[in-house]
Design a protein that fits this description.
Chain lengths: 242, 324, 667
C-alpha cells in the first residue's frame, strides 16, 4: 500500500497562514493504515495546530474529519459539507487523495499534511519499507518475485553491481542487496538459470516516460471516458536488443 | 572493419595478437584545465596500450570522459572512454558515443557507476535508464548493426572495442561468473577487473571463468591498484565497496613504514618502496594465472609511478603493432 | 425478576461461583483501593457476605485463570478485605411490597438466602427455625475458630433488617405443620432443613461409651463450651471437611492428641487440600486408606479401633463402594472415637404432612421447578442436594426464591445457566507476568490450637490491594468496534499477549483472552477499540471536568495505587487503571484546554502487573513532548514519574522537582 509520513508542523502552519477555518481531513485507507491518516492522527494534528495557532495569537478554527478513502469522489461527497464549511483543507491522505479534493472542489485550497513516501509494506510495527515503484511492466517473474527496480539502488536488471558484499548493498550496510536475495531465491526455486538470460533494454513508457498514465477497462465502460492522462496498453513482449 | 578488427585500436591489436596488454587509469581534473590530462597522457602513452579516462568516478563531478579522451588524443595517447549508466539516459549516452567515435576514440568501457550517495552530489536523482549490460548491448548494436536502440540507422562508421568491468570479489561469488558470461553474451570484447589483492580468490574465479571457456571469448585484464601507504590500504579494505584487501597486505605496509621510525619522510619512502614491491609481486602473480591477458593499473593520484612499475615488471617496452 | 434466555458469558471465577458473584468486579475495586465499592459489588449478589468471606469453599479460585499462569487469586480472602475495609450498607429493601407471605423452614444459608431474595422481591417472609439460634450449620457446626459467631449475627441482622421474621425454637412437625402454615395464610412454604444428623458406619462396638458423633460433638463444643476430659487421645473417623473440623476442634477442646482415619488415599480425600494442610500444621496425624472394622473395648474402657486396609474406595463406575483386604488389619489406640463419616437429613415428619419421600427416605423433589410433591411446598439447600458447601446451598435458596416468585405470580420460570469465558490460550499465558500469590496471614499453628480465636487473620488493606492487582480482569478489557476498524494491525502487533489475531481478513480481538492492559486502545489510530473496564472510555470527559477550573497543571495517576495516594490530595487529578491507557490525544487535549504542563504518576516497574505498560506510557509522553517541541510549543511539558509506594505522600514535591529547570552544569 501507499506509505506516507507527516509533514513538519511548521510547514503546514505556513501553508495555512492565509486561512481562518481549516479542516484537517484524514483518510482511513492507505495513510490510515500507515498511521498518519486515521481519526486519531487527525485529532492529534488538529490539536497541535490549535496549540500552535493559539501561541501565535491566531484566531483560526480547526475542524476534523475522516473519509474512508480520500481518493474516491463518492466518499468525498459524503464529506462535502465539512469541506465546504472550511476555507482550506489540510489533507492527511496521500498525494492521490489530496488531488482528488483539489479536482472535486475546484475552489477549495488543499494543502498536504503528509509526504507520500512510497508503495511498500510494514513488515513489523513501526517499520515501513518500499517494495514497488509502479513501473507499469512487472518483471518480477524473472527475478524470483523480488523487484530490482524498486529495491536495487541502481535499478539494475541483470544482476548485482560490483558493490554487493556479504549480502549488503553498497549504499548502506543496513540495506540488503536485493540481487543477492534474488540469486538466493532463484537458487532455492531451482530457477537460477533464468538469470543467465539478458533482460533487454526496457520500455519505460509504462513508467513515467509519457506523462500521466491512465488505463481503461473496456469491459466496464460503454462510453469513451474523458481522458486526463495517457492511456497505457499492455507492453508487447520484446526480447533484448538482438 | 575491413581489416578484421572491430575498432583496430592498439589495445585490440595487442590482445588479438595474444600479447600481454597493459592499460592504466587517468583521472580527469575537477576543473577546466586541460594540462593535467595531457601531462599524464604524455608520461604514460608509451608505457600503456590504452589509457582509461574515468566518467565522474565515485560520483564526483569531473571533466567529462569524452573531453578527457579527446585531450589524450591530442598528445598521441590511446584513450579508453569509460561510460557509466548513472548520469545519462540512452539518448545522451548514444550521442556521446557518436561524438567520441567522431573524435577518434575506439575503446569503450561500460559500467553501472558508483552510487551518487558516495559522491559530491548525494541529493542528485540518478538515471539508470539502462544498466551496464544493456549498455554493452547498445554499443554492440551500434557497431554491428549500425542502429540506435530505437532501430533507426546510424550514418558513418562505428568502430568500437567494447569493454566491461567485473568484480571477482563482490558477492554472490558464484554468480559473478554468470554475470561475466552475460556481459560476454551482450558483446564485451575485453574485461577490466576490480583491483586484485586476494590472488588465490582471483585465481579461483579465473578457474571458474576458464572452466566455462569464457577466457576464449573475452580478454581479461586484471586490475591492480598500487598502494602507497598502509592508511590507503586500510581505507580500501574498509571503505571502498567491492575491494577486498587481505589483512596481511595492510600489515606488510605497516611493517615497512615502521622501518622509517619517527621520520615521516622516511616512513613515506619505505611505504612507497613496499607498495611498488607489492604491486610488482601482484603483477607477476596474476600474469601466471591462465586466462589473464593483461593488467590494468589504477594508480589514482600516483600516475607518475606507472611507467616505473611497468619497467620493473618487465612489461616495457610495449610491443609494436602494425599501423592502420 | 426477568430471566433472559441468551446465556451470559462470565469470567470463570464468577461462573464457577454458584451464586455468580462478580469477583472480577470487587477485585478491581479493591485493586483501586475503592473498598466501599468493592463491598457494594459483593452485596449485589451475596446476602451473606461475611460468612462467605470467612468460610466459603471458594470454587471460584479453582477456576481462576491466573492458575494457568502461576497461582489463582486469593478471592475469598479478598472478599474479606471488602467486608472488613468497606463501609457500604446492604441494598435497601424495595418500596413495593406484595401481599403474599412465604414461610421458610430452616435458617441455614439456603433458607436465609431465599428469605433475603423473597424479601427483596416484596414478599413478607417468616423463617421457622427449630434451634435456639439461627444460622443452620454455620451456627451449630462450623467451628468458632473458623467463623466467629458475632460475624454470623451481622449477616443475619442485615436480613432481619429487611423485615424477615425469624422464629427460633419453632420446629416443623413439632410446633407447627404445613397445614397450619397454610391456614395462617402462607402462600408458599420452603423446606430448607439441611442435613442435621450424623451418620454412623455400622461397625461392632460403635454404641460403646466414648464413641461420639461429629455433629453433636461440634455443636456442644461451639454452643455449650464442651471440653474433653484431660489426657485423652482422640480418633476421628472420616476424611472430609467435617472430620477435619472435628479433629481440629478436639485439639482445641483439650485432646492430648488426634489421629484421623479415613478410607481414602491422600489424593482422594474429600476434604479441601488447604484444610488438610492446616490440620497437619497443627500436628494431627492422618491415617489414610484404612476402614473401621470394629471398636474394641478393653477393661470396660474404650481402647482400640481395629481397621482393615482399603483396596479401593470407588468401584469401576466411579461410585463410592469401598472394598478391603479383609486380612490386613491394624489397631489404632485411643480413648475417644468421633465418627465423622457423613450427614443425613431428618425428614420423618414430612409424609404425615403430605410431602412425599422416596424409597431411600429422600425428599421427592424436582430441581427444575424446586417443587416437592405438595402444591405450594418448595425445597432448597442440602436437603435437596446432599452435603456440599454453604454457597451451593445459597444458590439453591436463590433459585427457590425465583421459583416461588414465579409460582405466586403465575409465571413459568426458566433457569438459564451462564457460560464461562474460554480458557486462556497458551500464547497468552506466556505473555503474562508471573506474580507471586500473597499468603494469607494466619495465627501460628502452635498458638492457635490453644484457643478458639479465628485462625485465619486475613489480609490487611495494603496486602489486599497488592493481591487484587494480580487479577487478570478476564473479559473486561478491549473489544473491537468493527465498523471503525481499518485493519491496520496495530493492535495485533502491539499486544504483548498476542490477543488480537487476524481471522478471515479481519482483526479479531479475542475478548476472552484480553488482559485489559490497554496498550492497544491508546495505539489504535482510528479509535476502533472499546474498553469494558470502567475508568477508561470516559478519560476525555474526565479531562474536561478536571480542566474546568482553568488549571495550570493536570496530573494523571495510576488508580491501582490510590490506596497509597490516600495521603495525597488527588482532587482534580485523574485516576487511570494503569497509565498505559492514556493516549497521546488525551494529553494534547489537556494542553488544548489550557494546561501548561501535565504529569503521569505511576508505579515502579516491579509493581506493575502488566507487561510493557510503563514503557508504552513513557513513549506517549515522549511523543507528545516531541510534537510540542517540534511545533515550538516548549520542551518537556509532560513528565512521567515512577513513584515508590512510600513516596506518594511526597508527590507534590516530586512533581515540582521534575519540572524544576535543570541547572546548567557549573564551570
Ligand atoms: C462441620 C461443618 C463444617 C462446614 N464447613 C463449611 C465451610 O467451611 N464452608 C462451606 O461452604 N460449607 C461448610 N459446611 C457445609 C455447610 O454448612 C452447608 O452446606 C450449609 O450449611 C447447608 O445449608 P442449608 O441451609 O441447606 O442447611 P443447614 O445449614 O443445615 O440449615 C438447616 C437448618 O434447618 C433447621 N431445621 C432442620 N429441621 C428443621 C425443622 N424440622 N424445623 C425447623 N427447622 C429445622 C436446622 O436447625 C438448621 O438450622 C460445613 C458443614 C459442617 C457440618
Ligand atoms: S484472574 Fe480475576 S477475573 Fe480472571 S478468573 Fe481470576 S479472579 Fe476471576
Ligand atoms: S487491552 Fe492489552 S491485553 Fe487486551 S487486547 Fe489490548 S493490548 Fe492485548
Amino acid at each position: 500500500m501507499i506509505k506516507a509520513t507527516h509533514k513538519r508542523l511548521e510547514r503546514i502552519n505556513e501553508m495555512i497562514a492565509p486561512h481562518s477555518e481549516v479542516l484537517v481531513l484524514g483518510c482511513e485507507t492507505c495513510t490510515g493504515i500507515c498511521l498518519v491518516g486515521g481519526e486519531k492522527e487527525v485529532a492529534r494534528m488538529a490539536a497541535n495546530l490549535r496549540l500552535l495557532n493559539r501561541k501565535n495569537g491566531g484566531k483560526k478554527t480547526f475542524t476534523e474529519g475522516v473519509v474512508r478513502r480520500q481518493c474516491e469522489m463518492e466518499f468525498l461527497d459524503g464529506a462535502a459539507s465539512l469541506i465546504n464549511d472550511a476555507d482550506a483543507v489540510v489533507s492527511l491522505a496521500c498525494g492521490v487523495g489530496m488531488q482528488a479534493i483539489a479536482e472535486h472542489f475546484p475552489n477549495m485550497p488543499v494543502y498536504p499534511g503528509n509526504n507520500t513516501a512510497f508503495l511498500g509494506l510494514s513488515p513489523e510495527l513501526g517499520l515501513f519499507s518500499e517494495r514497488c515503484v509502479a513501473c507499469g511492466d512487472c518483471l518480477i517473474d524473472r527475478t524470483g518475485g523480488l523487484c530490482p527496480i524498486a529495491r536495487c539502488a541502481k535499478h539494475l536488471f541483470n544482476g548485482p553491481c560490483g558493490g554487493s558484499v556479504a549480502g549488503k548493498c553498497e549504499v548502506s550496510p543496513d540495506v540488503p542487496c536485493i540481487w543477492q536475495m534474488i540469486v538466493d531465491r532463484m537458487m532455492r526455486l531451482g530457477q537460477l538459470s533464468k538469470l543467465e538470460d539478458i533482460k533487454g533494454i526496457r520500455n519505460w513508457k509504462t513508467n513515467d516516460a509519457v506523462g500521466p498514465r491512465a488505463y481503461i477497462r473496456e469491459d466496464l465502460r460503454s462510453t469513451p471516458p474523458k481522458l486526463d492522462s495517457v492511456v497505457m496498453k499492455p507492453v508487447a513482449p520484446k526480447g533484448g536488443a538482438a | 572493419m575491413s581489416n578484421g578488427y572491430k575498432a583496430g585500436t592498439r589495445l585490440e591489436k595487442i590482445l588479438a595478437a595474444g600479447k600481454f596488454a597493459v592499460t592504466a587509469e587517468v583521472g580527469p581534473p575537477k576543473g577546466t584545465d586541460p594540462e593535467p590530462v595531457r601531462k599524464k597522457g604524455e608520461k604514460m602513452k608509451s608505457a600503456c596500450d590504452a589509457l582509461n579516462v574515468t566518467d565522474n568516478q565515485t560520483a564526483i563531478v569531473r571533466l567529462c570522459s569524452l573531453a578527457g579522451c579527446a585531450l589524450l588524443k591530442q598528445v598521441g595517447a590511446e584513450p579508453l572512454m569509460q561510460i557509466v549508466c548513472r548520469d545519462r539516459n540512452r539518448i545522451a549516452i548514444q550521442s556521446d558515443v557518436l561524438g567520441a567515435i567522431s573524435l577518434g576514440v575506439g575503446n569503450f568501457l561500460c559500467l553501472s557507476g558508483d552510487h551518487q550517495k558516495f559522491g559530491n552530489h548525494p541529493t542528485a536523482k540518478n538515471v539508470f535508464d539502462i544498466d551496464s549490460i544493456q549498455l554493452i548491448q547498445t554499443l554492440k548494436m551500434m557497431r554491428d548493426e549500425k542502429k540506435f536502440i530505437c532501430g533507426e540507422d546510424i550514418s558513418g562508421n562505428t568502430p568500437m572495442f567494447i569493454g566491461a568491468a567485473e568484480n571477482p570479489f563482490a558477492d554472490p561469488f558464484e554468480f559473478r561468473v554468470v554475470r561475466l558470461a552475460k556481459k560476454i553474451k551482450a558483446g564485451a570484447d575485453f574485461i577490466q577487473t576490480q583491483a586484485v589483492y586476494d590472488v588465490p580468490k582471483f585465481a579461483r574465479w579465473m578457474k571458474m571463468v576458464c572452466d566455462r571457456g569464457l577466457d576464449k571469448q573475452v580478454h581479461i585484464l586484471a586490475g591492480v591498484i598500487p598502494i602507497r601507504t598502509s592508511g590507503a590500504a586500510r581505507y580500501m579494505q574498509t571503505s571502498v565497496p567491492g575491494v577486498a584487501v587481505p589483512d596481511e597486505i595492510v600489515k606488510r605496509m605497516k611493517a615497512a613504514e615502521d622501518k622509517g621510525g619517527a621520520d615521516k619522510k622516511l616512513k613515506a619512502e619505505y611505504g612507497r618502496e613496499e607498495g611498488i614491491k607489492l604491486t610488482l609481486e601482484l603483477i607477476e602473480q596474476v600474469k601466471q594465472i591462465p586466462g589473464v591477458h593483461g593488467v590494468h593499473l589504477m594508480a589514482v593520484g600516483w600516475e607518475e609511478a606507472v611507467p616505473g612499475i611497468l619497467e620493473k615488471a618487465g612489461l616495457l617496452p610495449r610491443p609494436a603493432v602494425e599501423a592502420g | 425478576m426477568q430471566q433472559s434466555t441468551a446465556p451470559v458469558v462470565q469470567p470463570p471465577c464468577q461462573n464457577e461461583c454458584p451464586i455468580h458473584q462478580d469477583a472480577r468486579g470487587y477485585l478491581a475495586a479493591i485493586a483501586r483501593g475503592e473498598f466501599d465499592r468493592a463491598l457494594e459489588v459483593v452485596r449485589e449478589t451475596n446476602p451473606l457476605p461475611i460468612i462467605c468471606a470467612t468460610i466459603c469453599s471458594h470454587p471460584c479460585e479453582n477456576k481462576c485463570r491466573r492458575g494457568k499462569v502461576d497461582l489463582p487469586l486469593s478471592i475469598r480472602a479478598l472478599k474479606r478485605v471488602a467486608v472488613e475495609q468497606g463501609k457500604s450498607p446492604p441494598p435497601a429493601k424495595p418500596k413495593a411490597q406484595r401481599s403474599q407471605k412465604v414461610a421458610v423452614i430452616g435458617s441455614g444459608p439456603a433458607g436465609l438466602t431465599a428469605a433475603h431474595d423473597l424479601a427483596h422481591l416484596g414478599y413478607s417472609v417468616t423463617i421457622l427455625e427449630r434451634d435456639a439460634a439461627p444460622g443452620g450449620a454455620m451456627t451449630n457446626f462450623v467451628p468458632i475458630y473458623r467463623l466467629p459467631r458475632e460475624w454470623i449475627k451481622r449477616d443475619i441482622d442485615a436480613i432481619t433488617a429487611l423485615g424477615v421474621t425469624i422464629k427460633t425454637n419453632h420446629e416443623l412437625g413439632k410446633n407447627v405443620t404445613i397445614a397450619d402454615l397454610k391456614k395462617q395464610g402462607f402462600n408458599a412454604i420452603l423446606l430448607a432443613m439441611g442435613l442435621p444428623v450424623s451418620r454412623t458406619p455400622g461397625v461392632p462396638g460403635e454404641n460403646s461409651e466414648g464413641v461420639m458423633l461429629a455433629l453433636p460433638f461440634l455443636r456442644s463444643v461451639n454452643q455449650e463450651g464442651y471440653r474433653l476430659p484431660p489426657d485423652k487421645m482422640v480418633i476421628v473417623v472420616g476424611g472430609g471437611n467435617v472430620a477435619i473440623d472435628v479433629a481440629r476442634s478436639a485439639l482445641r477442646a483439650g485432646a492430648a492428641g488426634v489421629r484421623m482415619v479415613c478410607l481414602e488415599a491422600p489424593h482422594e480425600m474429600p476434604a479441601s487440600p488447604w484444610e488438610v494442610e492446616e490440620a497437619k500444621e497443627e500436628g494431627i496425624d492422618i491415617n489414610c486408606s484404612w476402614g473401621p472394622k470394629q471398636i474394641i473395648v478393653r477393661n470396660g474402657k474404650l481402647g482400640v479401633l481395629e481397621c482393615k486396609k482399603v483396596k479401593s474406595v470407588f468401584d469401576a463406575q466411579g461410585r463410592f463402594n469401598p472394598s478391603f483386604y479383609e486380612e490386613q488389619c491394624t489397631l489404632i489406640e485411643g480413648d475417644i472415637i468421633i465418627m465423622a463419616i457423613g450427614q443425613g437429613s431428618d425428614l420423618k415428619m414430612l409424609p404425615d404432612m403430605g410431602v412425599n419421600l422416596n424409597e431411600r427416605k429422600q425428599l421427592v423433589f424436582d430441581a427444575k421447578t424446586m417443587t416437592t410433591s405438595q402444591e405450594g411446598v418448595f425445597a432448597c439447600g442440602e436437603v435437596t442436594t446432599g452435603p456440599g458447601s454453604a454457597v451451593r446451598a445459597m444458590s439453591t435458596g436463590r433459585r427457590a426464591a425465583l421459583a416461588i416468585d414465579g409460582y405466586l405470580k403465575g409465571e413459568k420460570v426458566v433457569f438459564t445457566e451462564p457460560l464461562p469465558l474460554g480458557e486462556l490460550a497458551p500464547e497468552v499465558v506466556n505473555g503474562v507476568k508471573r506474580i507471586e500469590r500473597n499468603v494469607v496471614p494466619a495465627q501460628d499453628p502452635a498458638l492457635r490450637v490453644k484457643n478458639f480465636n479465628i485462625a485465619d487473620l486475613g489480609y490487611d488493606a495494603v496486602l489486599g490491594l497488592k493481591e487484587a492487582r494480580r487479577c487478570l480482569n478476564c473479559g473486561n478489557g478491549a473489544h473491537l468496534i468493527e465498523e471503525k476498524c481499518i485493519a491496520c494491525l496495530t493492535c495485533v502487533r502491539v499486544c504483548p499477549y498476542n490477543v488480537p489475531v487476524t481471522r478471515n481478513g479481519k482483526v479479531d480481538i479475542r475478548v476472552d483472552q484480553c488482559q485489559a492492559c490497554g496498550i492497544c486502545v491508546a495505539e489504535c489510530p482510528v479509535n476502533a477499540i472499546g474498553f469494558r473496564m470502567p475508568g477508561v472510555e470516559d478519560i476525555p470527559q474526565r479531562i474536561e471536568t478536571a480542566m474546568k477550573g482553568s488549571k495550570q497543571e493536570l496530573g494523571f495517576y495510576c488508580s491501582y495505587d490510590s490506596y497509597y495516594l490516600r495521603g495525597v490530595n488527588t482532587q482534580g487529578m485523574i485516576g487511570i487503571p494503569c497509565l498505559a491507557k492514556i493516549d497521546t490525544k488525551h494529553l494534547l487535549k489537556a494542553f488544548e484546554l489550557g494546561a501548561e504542563r501535565a504529569f503521569l504518576a505511576g508505579c515502579m516497574d516491579a509493581d506493575c502487573p502488566f507487561t510493557g505498560n510503563l514503557e508504552w506510557a513513557q513513549r506517549r509522553v515522549d511523543t507528545v513532548n516531541s510534537l510540542l517541541k517540534d511545533a515550538g510549543l516548549g520542551e518537556g511539558r509532560v513528565k512521567m514519574l515512577k513513584v515508590e509506594p512510600d513516596q506518594f505522600k511526597n508527590l507534590t514535591q516530586l512533581v515540582a522537582a521534575a519540572f524544576q529547570p535543570k541547572e546548567a552544569p557549573k564551570g
